[in-house]
Amino acid sequence: MATSSLSGPGRRGVLGTAAAVAAGTVLPALAAPPARAAGPDRPNVLLIVTDDQPKQTEWATPKTVAWLAGQGVRFSNGHVTTPLCAPSRSSVFSGRFAHNHGVRNNSTSPALDRHTTLQRYLSQAGYRTGLFGKYLNAWDVADNPPHFEEFALLRPSYTDGTFNVNGTVRTISGYATTVIRNRTLAFLDKSRTDSRPWFACVTPYASHGPFTPEPEYAGTEVPAWDGRPSVPEEDRSDKPAYVRDATQTLEDGRLVRAKQLRALRSVDDAVQSFRDKLAALGQLDDTLVVYIGDNGFNWADHGLTGKAVPYRPAHEVPFYLSWPGGGLGGGTTDDRIVANIDIAPTVLDAAGITPDTPHDGHSPLGPHARDHLLVEWWRQGSGTAAKNTWSSYVAKDRQYTEYYDPHTDAAGTVSSTGQVKFREYYDLRADPYQLRNSLHQATPADERALGIPGLAAALAADRTA
């Protein structure tokens, strides 16, 4: 597989490579599509956001990988900027960090300014917009999602789910991922008679707990897994208290992993059906497809299962792009640091739309490359939870994390003295599994040698930018 940075003269330069890419790509014969307004400057957009899908799950999604990575771009350093559902999804829609869009926990979805969202820009620009699946946590299923013309909004569940279908709340029998797939296919099929370019946001509940698989995959054997060095970590004395006290075992991690992989098999089937539909419609070239997990998940790493922690399995996610008409159809790997905040800028860049609200993210269709990423999370409530609010400076070769005393209330308002309670530093080249916190018992001279003062200053600046 080739390696590419997608760098160059920006979107127009990338578009100029489309003919060369197409010349080397073999696709099945396609029926002539109807006249459409979509094209290289106004691509259709298919955005797929899975739930709690960690990076190491490609075994479960071979069709997705074959299409979007094998014939598009796999980003090997894909992240989310807050490893929690509602903040991350709000960053996908707005292109902004949680400290800027205001959705700091799963109870504060109303804080998202709908005017700043990707769906608003596309709808205003004449796109036909659709949402199929989960939207934002704490969103009342009876409330129509703004700026989506058509929708089947799911109250999170796997079987016989409650959906808001274009304003009518009802139960739809069957497996939720299949319902979402079929609703999406019907939306795509309407382009036979509607010439507008379209935006379909597809958000299956998989692979969120309780990880219920479709019946045909309930007994699927998954590859054996003996964990990784962080499962379990023998000595956690250099970690914060909530990690020192964690009790999840390798068997716990194996169980969660197997359930997630089985639930994702149906997502893979759905993605394949989307590709087949686009091929039948003649829309493969002129559709920008983005695939990302809203956060990762620990499989007993450091004794933890779940998300919302500053360790790599929680904030690293699968991230793929495909857009043959825009030059992204060759099967490349891009090692730039990219994140959920880059999705809205990417889509608007491809569509030639200039947002009226600044983004924190950047479109990877041009040459932009960041040297690090801010990842952040807030503790909700003022109770006795052991895990404090934290923020982290994440680069390819190192990660520096600070834990603080602040917390958020139900409205997302932050209360804080700003006191740093604990710190971690990992050399990711020498210690990719984050086993040795270099700040444990470090002297001031040790910290200076590691560059901690500069990292702390950079993190402080990121948190207020």
From TrEMBL:
Organism listed in the record: Streptomyces omiyaensis
E.C. number(s) listed in UniProt: 3.1.6.-
Signal sequence, renumbered to the chain: 1-31
Ranges where the Sulfatase N-terminal domain occurs: 43-353
Keywords, ordered alphabetically: Hydrolase, Signal
Matches recorded under SUPFAM superfamilies: Alkaline phosphatase-like
GO terms of molecular function: hydrolase activity
PANTHER family linked: N-ACETYLGLUCOSAMINE-6-SULFATASE FAMILY MEMBER (PTHR43108), SD21168P (PTHR43108:SF8)
A Pfam family it matches: Sulfatase
InterPro entries: Alkaline_phosphatase_core_sf (IPR017850), Sulfatase_N (IPR000917), TAT_signal (IPR006311)
Gene3D superfamilies recorded: Alkaline Phosphatase, subunit A
Name this polypeptide is given: Sulfatase
